[in-house]
Design goal:
2 helices; 2 domains
C-alpha cells in the first residue's frame, strides 16, 4: 500500500509542476544601433563579399549613442514588452560551413547569442536555412544584396520557464561592400501545458487505481 501511495503522490506532484509552467509569450524585432557597422566575413573573421561569406560579424558597435551595444529592440509584444527600446549584444556566428571558435555554427548551441540588459537571454540552437539574393538598386553598377537566415533558439527571462522560439535575421547592403545593416524578428513557440481539468481527471484515476490495489492486497 505504501508503495502505491507514494507512486500516486509522485505522479501528481510531477503533473502539478508541469501545470505550473509559465512559458514566455510574444515576439520582438531588433535592428542595428545607429552608427554601428556589421560585416560579412568568412569563418576566420576576414571581411569578404556577401557572395563569398559564411559568417556574420556583429562586433563593430560604432561610436554613436551606444559604443558597447550591437542592436536595439525596435518593437515588442507580450512578455517582451519589458525589453522594448533597450539595447542588447549579439554574438558572431557562421551560417554555413564548419565555423570556428570565434564564429561557431550550432549544434549544439551558441550560449548567450543575444543578451538584453539581463532581462532576456537567447541561446541559438540551430540555423535551419539561409538565402542570398540580389535585386537591382536603380543605380548603374550597384545592386542591393540581401541575406536572410532563419533558425531556432531557447528564450530565457526572469520568472518564466525557458521557451523554444524561432528567429529570422535579414541583412541589407550593396555590391562591393562588406558592411551591412540588419534587422531580425524573433518569436517564441509555446509548448502545450496540460489543462487543470485533465490533471484532475488523471489524478482521480490514479487515486482510484491505488484504492483498488489496496483492497486486493487486503
Amino acid at each position: 500500500m505504501r508503495k502505491v501511495g507514494l507512486f500516486v503522490i509522485a505522479v501528481l506532484a510531477a503533473f502539478a509542476t508541469e501545470a505550473a509552467a509559465v512559458p514566455i509569450v510574444g515576439d520582438f524585432d531588433i535592428g542595428v544601433v545607429s552608427g554601428a557597422t556589421v560585416q560579412w566575413t568568412d569563418s576566420a573573421g576576414v571581411a569578404t563579399t556577401l557572395a563569398a561569406s559564411t559568417a556574420v560579424d556583429f562586433n563593430n558597435p560604432g561610436t554613436l549613442g551606444c559604443p558597447t551595444c550591437n542592436f536595439v529592440v525596435s518593437s515588442a509584444s507580450g512578455d517582451f514588452l519589458t525589453v522594448n527600446g533597450l539595447n542588447g549584444t549579439i554574438k558572431d556566428f557562421s551560417f554555413t560551413g564548419a565555423g570556428s571558435v570565434a564564429f561557431p555554427i550550432p549544434p549544439p548551441t551558441i550560449s548567450g547569442w543575444e543578451v538584453i540588459a539581463g532581462l532576456l537571454t537567447v541561446d541559438m540552437t540551430s540555423v535551419t536555412g539561409f538565402n542570398k539574393f540580389t535585386s537591382p538598386s536603380g543605380v548603374p553598377g550597384i545592386d542591393n544584396l540581401s541575406l536572410t537566415i532563419v533558425g531556432t533558439a531557447i528564450f530565457t527571462m526572469p520568472g518564466k520557464d525557458p521557451t523554444s522560439g524561432i528567429w529570422q535575421l535579414t541583412t541589407q547592403g550593396n555590391s562591393g561592400q562588406t558592411t551591412f545593416s540588419f534587422s531580425a524578428h524573433e518569436q517564441v513557440v509555446q509548448a502545450a501545458v496540460p489543462e487543470p481539468a485533465t490533471l484532475l481527471l488523471l489524478g482521480t484515476g490514479l487515486l482510484v487505481a491505488g484504492g483498488v490495489a489496496r483492497r486486493r492486497r487486503k
